[in-house]
């Protein structure tokens, strides 16, 4: 019997058709849960979201830290990039991070905006490279699919889902919840 896609399985579930559970899958084929600590980054020149999420062996996710690196308009672009690199290095030196996961730049019509976002990503990637960390990048559509279940979810829907998944009482700022979502995307979709 051919394997069904996630989309087809979801369609079957919503329409009330029986869907095979993972209990029917032989243990050797069941996907292992990710165990480790991931630094998720939602890069932006003026508001980079950072989240350190630990994935415990029992399948539990624990938010160890989240923050938004806010930078005022009066700070020059080179200084902002230096601040992003420095903050990522500080986090990598504080926590035992296994990998870094970043959100890829989305399509933007303005060339200058794309350059600025690319530079912010570069500053974060450079910091990870300086500490020898593997970097994985995920497009926003994939992040939303992995965390919320559909790629057109709003930032608010992502934030609510992250709050539920982490069992966190308060809503995270949007940049922070996006960073946590990128970390979770890596944990949920990483190839074994």
Automatic annotation (TrEMBL):
InterPro entries: RNaseH-like_sf, RNaseH_sf, X-over_junc_endoDNase_Mg_BS, X-over_junc_endoDNase_RuvC. Mg(2+) 2 binds at residue 103. Coiled coil: none annotated. The keyword DNA repair applies. It is an enzyme of class 3 (hydrolase). Keywords: Cytoplasm, DNA damage, DNA recombination, DNA repair, DNA-binding, Endonuclease, Hydrolase, Magnesium, Metal-binding, Nuclease. GO terms for molecular function: crossover junction DNA endonuclease activity; DNA binding; magnesium ion binding. GO terms for cellular component: cytoplasm; Holliday junction resolvase complex. The active site is at residues 42, 103, 175. SUPFAM superfamilies: Ribonuclease H-like. One of its GO terms (biological process) is DNA repair. Binds 2 Mg(2+) ion per subunit. It is found in: Cytoplasm. It holds the Pfam family RuvC. Mg(2+) 1 binds at residues 42, 175. Its cofactor is Mg(2+). Its EC number is 3.1.21.10. Belongs to the RuvC family. The RuvA-RuvB-RuvC complex processes Holliday junction (HJ) DNA during genetic recombination and DNA repair. Endonuclease that resolves HJ intermediates. Cleaves cruciform DNA by making single-stranded nicks across the HJ at symmetrical positions within the homologous arms, yielding a 5'-phosphate and a 3'-hydroxyl group; requires a central core of homology in the junction. The consensus cleavage sequence is 5'-(A/T)TT(C/G)-3'. Cleavage occurs on the 3'-side of the TT dinucleotide at the point of strand exchange. Homodimer which binds Holliday junction (HJ) DNA. The HJ becomes 2-fold symmetrical on binding to RuvC with unstacked arms; it has a different conformation from HJ DNA in complex with RuvA. In the full resolvosome a probable DNA-RuvA(4)-RuvB(12)-RuvC(2) complex forms which resolves the HJ. This is Crossover junction endodeoxyribonuclease RuvC. It comes from Pelagicoccus mobilis. The lineage of its organism: Bacteria, Pseudomonadati, Verrucomicrobiota, Opitutia, Puniceicoccales.
């Amino acid at each position: 019997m051919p394997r069904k896609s996630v989309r087809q399985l979801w369609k079957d579930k919503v329409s009330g058709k029986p869907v095979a559970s993972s209990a029917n899958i032989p243990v050797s084929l069941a996907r292992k849960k990710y165990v480790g600590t991931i630094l998720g980054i939602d890069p932006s020149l003026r508001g980079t979201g950072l989240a350190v999420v630990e994935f415990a062996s029992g399948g539990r996710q624990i938010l160890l830290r989240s923050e938004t690196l806010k930078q005022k308009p009066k700070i020059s672009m080179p200084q902002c990039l230096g601040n992003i690199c420095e903050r990522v290095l500080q986090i990598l030196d504080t926590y035992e991070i296994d990998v870094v996961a970043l959100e890829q730049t989305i399509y933007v019509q303005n060339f200058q905006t794309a350059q600025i976002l690319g530079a912010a990503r570069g500053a974060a990637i450079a910091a990870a490279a300086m500490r020898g960390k593997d970097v994985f990048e995920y497009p926003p559509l994939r992040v939303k699919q992995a965390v919320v279940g559909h790629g057109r979810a709003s930032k608010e829907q992502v934030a609510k889902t992250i709050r539920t998944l982490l069992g966190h009482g308060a809503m995270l700022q949007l940049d922070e919840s996006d960073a946590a979502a990128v970390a979770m995307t890596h944990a949920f979709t990483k190839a074994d």
